[in-house]
Structure of 2,4-dihydroxyhept-2-ene-1,7-dioic acid aldolase:
Amino acid sequence: MRENRLRTLFAQKKLALSGWVSMGNSLLAEVVANGGYDAVTVDLQHGLFSVESAIPMLQAISTTDAVPLVRCSENSLGEINKLLDAGAYGVICPLINTADDAERFVRACHYSPRGGRSYGPARGFMYGGPDYFTHANRTILTLAMIETNEGYANAEAILQVPDLDGIFIGPSDLAIEMGLAPDAYETRELNDAIRTLVALAQKHGKYVGIFAGTMDMAQRMKEFGMDLVVPGTDIQQIKAEGARRIAALR
Amino acid sequence: MRENRLRTLFAQKKLALSGWVSMGNSLLAEVVANGGYDAVTVDLQHGLFSVESAIPMLQAISTTDAVPLVRCSENSLGEINKLLDAGAYGVICPLINTADDAERFVRACHYSPRGGRSYGPARGFMYGGPDYFTHANRTILTLAMIETNEGYANAEAILQVPDLDGIFIGPSDLAIEMGLAPDAYETRELNDAIRTLVALAQKHGKYVGIFAGTMDMAQRMKEFGMDLVVPGTDIQQIKAEGARRIAALR
Amino acid sequence: MRENRLRTLFAQKKLALSGWVSMGNSLLAEVVANGGYDAVTVDLQHGLFSVESAIPMLQAISTTDAVPLVRCSENSLGEINKLLDAGAYGVICPLINTADDAERFVRACHYSPRGGRSYGPARGFMYGGPDYFTHANRTILTLAMIETNEGYANAEAILQVPDLDGIFIGPSDLAIEMGLAPDAYETRELNDAIRTLVALAQKHGKYVGIFAGTMDMAQRMKEFGMDLVVPGTDIQQIKAEGARRIAALR
Amino acid sequence: MRENRLRTLFAQKKLALSGWVSMGNSLLAEVVANGGYDAVTVDLQHGLFSVESAIPMLQAISTTDAVPLVRCSENSLGEINKLLDAGAYGVICPLINTADDAERFVRACHYSPRGGRSYGPARGFMYGGPDYFTHANRTILTLAMIETNEGYANAEAILQVPDLDGIFIGPSDLAIEMGLAPDAYETRELNDAIRTLVALAQKHGKYVGIFAGTMDMAQRMKEFGMDLVVPGTDIQQIKAEGARRIAALR
Amino acid sequence: MRENRLRTLFAQKKLALSGWVSMGNSLLAEVVANGGYDAVTVDLQHGLFSVESAIPMLQAISTTDAVPLVRCSENSLGEINKLLDAGAYGVICPLINTADDAERFVRACHYSPRGGRSYGPARGFMYGGPDYFTHANRTILTLAMIETNEGYANAEAILQVPDLDGIFIGPSDLAIEMGLAPDAYETRELNDAIRTLVALAQKHGKYVGIFAGTMDMAQRMKEFGMDLVVPGTDIQQIKAEGARRIAALR
Amino acid sequence: MRENRLRTLFAQKKLALSGWVSMGNSLLAEVVANGGYDAVTVDLQHGLFSVESAIPMLQAISTTDAVPLVRCSENSLGEINKLLDAGAYGVICPLINTADDAERFVRACHYSPRGGRSYGPARGFMYGGPDYFTHANRTILTLAMIETNEGYANAEAILQVPDLDGIFIGPSDLAIEMGLAPDAYETRELNDAIRTLVALAQKHGKYVGIFAGTMDMAQRMKEFGMDLVVPGTDIQQIKAEGARRIAALR
């Protein structure tokens, strides 16, 4: 089975960067995947498209070396299984608030006996190789989102769920839950919480990633020791560069 | 943030009319939205299309003054959040049978601390404005469907769920549950039940809307004091006018 | 090969009515096809969708007895062949201005030796039957649109093109070319021109159809002796019935 | 209401064969439906497409005599209702592990009082007929998938759920749960389990079907007395014939 | 009819900036349209999508004040008419090499008597207003692309075609035709040619626009006196900002 | 620029086999591309989908070593350019009847000075590499279809058009033009004509390929010395294997 290059990067203690696609277009996904990211995440939660559109996006990413990740829209066995069938090599699952949530998520991503993933990996075989079934359980990456007060309080228990590979921090939602603005990326409270989560993950030998709302934050997250940083979305890339171009010409 | 004109109409005690789109086509949505309705509801429950197709439909409605509403397919945080991200200004949620169901629905539509809506309103900002996050909780309209015997029995408890804006009656399903035909719109039992629900909503200062299966029923619902009436679906409009035209020429 | 019921109706001197679909949705096409029309025309010219969306629309119409017609977007061999492959049983071709245009159109619709239609009727075999190739040339209906001054002047020559089945009048474009408003359906000039075209078609034993912009016009067209009348579009049906419903409730 | 030909075949003790469509294309569905199968199953679980794409696929199948079945992606009222609205005449539901699961599934497929199916069968009326509501509960076929150890242990209880029509065996997932490879179709353990399930179904007067991973297995399943056999997927058909053709020419 | 704000800007001698969308996604179009551009061009020539996908993109742009432009894929009456029906307020037509080409293009964009545009502006009425037909001929903007040696040689004749509003320069194709590299934006030859075209356009009182391959070029084009500048595509925006972000974090 | 493996195979006098995709689904394209073919042809002529759907199909093929070919729907600069932009590495063009047709086709596939291909190869750069522009003219394969009596008569002149890489024979259309049935693959006349074309191509040092309607024909075409053979379509593969499976179980 094709290796999961993110696991290799993580093992080498190298920062991995993921692009983030939230518009449902396979050409866009291919453009982002050709841009130099180590991985590209197809976002089914806030991305305004359905699972079906994720298929050609995953195909497009598969024309490159970037690892195809997905963020599922919810902790749903049905949706997660379909995305894995489609060749996703990692899943970021939103709203993991308890160890039970995490266990359910891990089970959705693993074949029996570890979990209850259903068998039918049409694209999995094509992208991963004919020995997909044998190796999938230890190749697919599982990252649980910590983005609520409850999830933050339960983070250590979540991190101890067997076969969960790590956590992924949702800073805007966590900020809102802490009573801050969604873009309060510079506040001490939020950054303290993030540092605590990094330390917890490292203590338990798990990976930790984050979405960075600004480039300043992204730099800081690199310094915090993150394994995986997402430096903004495709929409942010379009907007930032468009604003720069328009300003230069007005 | 752009106002929710339905709230304005409701405050003025004016009857609001909503078009109803159940076929997945953005031009159709724009045609209906240009037809003079105060709102257009994109129906994800019985409408034969997916969330992804709702996006261009909501965009099309947004070219007009009609308020973009959705009926979600079920009481699901993931789906509701995606529809709100896409700029829906109100959600009609099917099958609210208990106050717990209603509370879960309200939480899906509100940001913390009132609820658990996740942050990522791509189109919300574009349609609503840059202050979307600050005002969304009190702008988005939440209407719980009463359409089962259980929901009917629990209607008063449902209406007392804080921050639920009102109820929306599903007369065909309610009729079926009462042992009547789905089109038993003229029966005394059904109409008594509807009147009871209107009175309950008014008692608790909440809004009440309904889908009207026929124009006779729509007229009666206006007289019952409804805040919102849906006078049939797009499919019914196509069929009624088509039958009229064919009959005239045979 | 499945018969072309329009030919049967025409032979019986019965007025045929066709629905008209200009929004790209297969459910809409099925709703219209179930409405009682003898045929349903999928409009690729002013309909805002592509050939690809016409395929499921033709499939949907094929679940009923309504004859699947198309209006192609232009007199293009490539597009016409694809639509015939997809199972269309008749083609209305816009902007036939000369006998040469008509001859080119006829050739696009017929296999050699009469024409240059390319072989590959994937859905043709499924809808029409295994003997499709043998009978297609005499089953498929070809209707040339007369909608310009030039086409009007050349109508008799056009009608004499061998194997052209008839003409279809575009009254709005013809009106514009005559210096009238596009909805000048009641003017004497336009109606005289239409009557002339009907007479010419009948003289040459060809069929004649028309799009009727209003129901008054549709009635008059029936009286003029048309073989085929289209009493408005799907959009008009939606708008007319919507306006009626809204007016009744305001 | 149009009869469900599968029920007729089952009553006649005739083996029914179903095609299996796992790629989201309506032409493909029509090709398979024209191939001679008694039914065609549109697979929403491992099929890489969404509910919306299932609509034109069901329309395409409806141009033939093949019975339109679906496998839903999960035991979800919302999705099942939408598929039934779209004209599916039978539902295969994955991961039925307990009688409670089965009861929930049956309720999703039946109108009140037997279940909680919501009313809005747009295509149901077109495909089934105007008396759809009256007969749907006893026409729609409900098949619960047995594919886990838990489901196997509870099979007899599941089979006794009133109004469940039968079971459908998922051999690969069952094999995995038994500690075997997903393609261990020839092992004694798996075949013993399958025979046990057939006997249980027959004892309770219920139907039993299965997906056959190979043609050898399909033959054996016929001998086991299955009511319904699926001899592989569309993807398998493409691959098997493609490999044969390439091998012949190399 | 809604004004064409580009005409207003041009009349005020203000530089207009257009965004450029070459990926087929309506959310992307809306994001670009909200970015501050005076217009957004939906590129059907090199954009990898079809006319059908342009519809929701034009709808999305119509939720903003940005003027919806299109670049058609070729000088085709059928395609141009469909795009105008869909509400485009201006057309950039590739490969205008002669005055005859330009005349054909102008005729495709105008109703009779000036041209042969067919009547059926479904979205035109919704976006432009009920008086669309009366004013469309003088509202819609027509820009002919000069991008070949032949077109350059015939530029003055092209500019004199009545009712053509102006020209739009394709610098990469023009460079290739001149024997230069497609990105030879800094060469004297190319810039001399561009200046010549600007002077010719101004001499004949016509507008002149250009696609700028780099921001340096965009600045220079502003200085050259262009009426309309496109500072790169959506893909370039995504790539430039992505590269910047990745470089900052490596 | 990535090599065109078909050119390598042709240079080595090895028979190349191409799969043929005529249903618009990217997963199907990927399945066929993984099946062992040297190339996969996306058929825009008789394939029932549009250019837009060809994009994800070409992306899917690009995940494998199979060379992505297209058959365009007609000899149209606009369509051919869009398909090349999308990364097609070869074009089969239908209905080349004269050397002029062939010259026009060649020009559509080559940048200036050899042709008039427009610059904008979004996917070309991603699939081919950053030096795409420099090498595209000699990498892209151009195959002109001979499928009419006229084309057959002009074959030698067509083969002498500079930079045309070869011809591709359409046996069904050629048979029809010769007055035979479309599946007259065993007739002497047709086979004589094919042999003549092979000899002509070889005489002029050009490649020659063919679509084979049956496996017997495919074998014979190999013996005739074809460079490229297409052993049937995806639809034929589905049907052949489906029929085999059903027959075995009845």
